[in-house]
Amino acid sequence: MASINNAALSNVYNFYQADLLPRSSSNRFDSHKKKDLQDVYKSIVKLSKDEPVFLMDRSREVEEYTIHMKESALLFRNRIASIGGLEEDTIFDQKTAYSSDPDIAEVLRQPEGAEDTEAVTLRVSSLATPQENRGKFIPEDEMGLPVGSYSFDLATQNSNYELQFTIGDNDTNKDVQGKLARLINNFKLGLNASVEEDGAGNTALMIRSKSVGDRGVGGGHFTVSDENTSQRSGIVDYLGIRTPSKEGADAVYSVNGKTYTSPSNDVVLEQGYELKLKKADPGRDVTVGYKPDLESMKDNIISLAGSYNDFLKATAEYIDRQPRTSILVNEMKSGSATYTKLLRNMGVEQADDGTLNIDGERLAESLKTGDPESELGVLKDFTKFALRRANQIQINPMDYVDKRIVAYKNPTQPHYANPYVTSAYSGMLFNGYM
Q: What is the pTM of this model?
């Protein structure tokens, strides 16, 4: 009995673990040095000394709003950091890595601080693929198994699961296949299941792993069986889902003529380029390298405008539900207008909603023939202005929440930091686990 209970508890733990694992992030700017975290803490403590005492709405809507604001600001900051924008001396100096054919290989991340890295020639022979267990095509309107309760075992790389279901009086093959597909997908086992049709009145259950690559040594990405389950067996062989119809395979590619394999389609080359392989074309060369200085600068400015627009739009989403958000949006609009008036020669214009429009041709011409030092100085000032707003939201996302002020602190007297103020947003520090 104890072993059965332990197995049941293990399945419960693994089921919820799939939902509770922290969100992973591939952005290196989400990692911080000790000093960065100390600075954030000091900023919160300083803020709490002068913050008025208020009563706050603790509804789910307010929680979602504050997390949305904080994460939008963080995303904007990370995008600016990716073009060297956190330091005034390096902003817009970051060269841009590129792929000559992004449909075959897309650059996810460029070598950090290695703009002199040589260009490489890439060929993608094959992509990493998942394991597939395609069942037999059987008549969709028939049923060859008796009514009753059935179960089968699904073993993945990490866990074993027993899935149970019932075949009813009027269930057809297609009904049962659909029922199993939903059961597998709802359990979040790292698998995708679907029902396929052959156009002749037959259907088959397809089970496909979300992970890719050759797992031959470990027995594949998953196995399906029903020899030792607690309910009636027979469904696995009836549907024909026991044996893989296609094994997982590694990606095969070459760099400067040297062949490599990878269990994933996200690869890191020896030169430091991080790529996503998207399409196999063994006869086509793809060049991966850095763009020239002016072209990189143009791309960085366009990236700045796009990131700012996304930040402003994400902020404006909540104006109807949180009216104080309009204060922030109007501050950003009026502040950016001051800078965009000085940037028209570069093809930078402000739209009615506050977003920035970039004329690429005028921008390129201005960088070649204009006064880039002066104009880039204005862009740097604009970037610092936008980052100040983003940092303000990160430190105090409650600033634009409707709240009832209970008492203001006397500005003529010194105040102590309130250690409980940070509890209002401490949960957002762990939002990666939500």
A: 0.59
